[in-house]
Amino acid sequence: MGVEIVGLGKCLPEKVVTNDDISDLVDTDHTWIIERTGIEQRHIAAGESGTDLACKAAEEALGNIDRDSIGLVLVATVTPDAMVPVTSAQVKMRLGLDHAVAFDINAACSGFMYGIWCAEALMKNGAAPGAGTMNIQRALVIGAERLSRITNWKERSSCILFGDGAGAAVLENNPKRPGILATYLKNYDDQKGVLTCGKEYHQTPFYKDENQPQHLALRGKAVFKFAVNSIEEVTMEALKQAGLELDDIDWFVPHQANGRIMEAAAKRLNQPIEKFQISINKSANVSSASIPMALYDLSKTGKMEKGDKIAVMGFGGGLCAAAAIIEW
Questions:
Q1: Would strands 309-316 and 320-327 be described as parallel, antiparallel, or unpaired?
Q2: φ, ψ (nearest 5 deg) of residue 197
Q3: Concatenated DSSP letters for 91-140?
Q4: Nearest Cα residue to 114 out of 77, 62, 60, 162
Q5: Strands 195-197 and 251-254
Q6: Fewer beta carbons within 10 Å, N or C terminal of the chain?
Q7: Which of 118, 173, 255, 258 is catalytic?
Q8: Is 109 considered catalytic here?
């Protein structure tokens, strides 16, 4: 039994923030940003909530699919609108997905990949609670972020990188289609704190917690090295599981973290950059939303054909990385 992607959706906030706009905030310019990241602009939520973005992306992914057939809603995010209720529960309620079980996960920029892995496992091996013995026929997996809320807009090397948005995919059990051929996940210990974001809690009358600024912080060179190495490792392991070689892959869809990282990954894998979907120029790094958004962009080019093999690769804080091989 295969699990395939049958619907994709994407939502970006209306407000566009250009590199020139960023240069009004910190000492930088358009050329400096382009050369180091490949980013021309990013979208920033000025009125939309994370749940708004998630719902709009989900609605497009669902299209005319029967909403009663959705048995699972899974949202990957590091920037939920609230701790309770979780974003997936809000999406379920707003979209009237009455038969779905909903939960959120946080695996940083690999979140969508971890979500796909969870959804596939539940669809193949688990039943939906409250649904008797009925298996989950379809699942909705969303990556949704408002990274602008945890970006340090005074820190030049990081504030240029991030944006807001959401991407969604509908997965379906289909015994006649291969769909997801293999998935490989790996966690690495971040012993040096190369990619972190604190959490600001209220102080209690019993203990004074150490102040943890709720800003994304990264050590660029270390993140770059980790990203390129982990992309190679998880991609090769997923290919091994699928019984395929690199040259069998028609398209690569990596997490859109930095243009230089994708170029370096292409060289490491000895693959032409033309096989890599590059979306970062218009939307920047949107963490867990970047992969479904890039996959959506690739689908809209009309280049993908039925039967194409796609390698989808994520990496992020934790540290964590994941890859999936999908037959379109």
A1: antiparallel
A2: -155, 120
A3: HHHHTT-TT-EEEEE--GGGHHHHHHHHHHHHHHH-B-TTSTT-B--EEE
A4: 77
A5: unpaired
A6: N
A7: 255
A8: yes
How many other CB atoms sit within 10 Å of the CB of residue 84?
6
Distance CA 177, CA 175 (A): 6
Fold designation for 2-176: Peroxisomal Thiolase; Chain A, domain 1 (3.40.47)
The answer to whether domain 2-176 and domain 181-327 are alike in fold is yes
Exposure on the CB side of residue 10, measured as CA atoms within 13 A: 18
Segment 264-315, tens digit of pLDDT: 999 999 999 999 999 999 999 999 999 999 999 999 999 999 999 999 999 9
pTM score, whole prediction: 0.94
Q: Locate 56 and state its tokens.
A: 């709009």
Catalytic residue among 11, 43, 55, 109: 109
Which CATH fold topology does 181-327 show?
Peroxisomal Thiolase; Chain A, domain 1 (3.40.47)
Catalytic residue selected from 19, 258, 285, 320: 285
Exposure on the CB side of residue 131, measured as CA atoms within 13 A:
17
